[in-house]
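Async update (no meeting this week)

Hi team, since we skipped the sync, here's where things stand on the single-chain job. The sequence we agreed to prioritize is pasted below, unchanged from the tracker. I ran it this morning and attached the output directly underneath so nobody has to dig for it. Comments welcome in thread, and please keep replies under the output.
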Amino acid sequence: MPILALFTFVILVGIKWLNLPKVKIGIKQTGANEIELTTGKLAKSVWLSLPGTNNAFSDNYFDLLPGEKRIVQVKTADLKNMIRQIQVKSLTDAY
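Output:
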């Protein structure tokens, strides 16, 4: 049985006042329909998309903490060939 750990952090200023660094989010396939996302810096509001699909991910639009590994299920028949098409963005990609 996997252990689920939930972390909560509080931001004491408005998000527009945060000086977030640009982040690189790593993505790799870990199972037939599963990917793992990692980052070395806070990635605020991570958003995943796969062109031509709708609601393809079991989890979407989340914060990713430094060193955290987030496992996401992908609803596609051919993840091995589709993984390069997955777009991963965070709040810092918006500005």
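Quick observations from my side:
The chain has one domain: 23-94.
Residues 46 and 90 are 4 Å apart (CA to CA).
Reply here if anything looks off.
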